[in-house]
Predict the structure of YjbQ family protein.
Amino acid sequence: MHCIHDRIQLETTAPIQILDITDQVRERCAASGLRDGMVTLISRHTTARLNLNERESQLQRDMVTFLKRLVPRDGDYLHNLAPVDDRDNAHSHLLGLFMNASESIPVSDGQLMLGEWQSIFFIELDGPRPQRSVTLQFLGT
């Protein structure tokens, strides 16, 4: 069994942004040489998450609208009274409660075993941010 680590570097440009990283993960999978096993992706940020969903532009707009309505930025949040990094971002942390920080995807014959309509999304909840990353761990043969 082999264990390979990799990282995808990202920059975000909007307060809430959905970035499709499927092609980057596929490229990293091919470069890893993994034939059969699993890739686990993790966002090591408390205000950015990962998700598997359909890539369709109108649906992605609906997703952003839904998130903004679910936890409004201008809510009366205690965290914003003494922000750690001078960002009023309580809403971002609260949105993160409803999402995954990691995703695990099986790999078979060197290919990600995603469904026909599935893409891998990095979801920024507290942007814009000049530097974000997704850590990948490939396990298998």
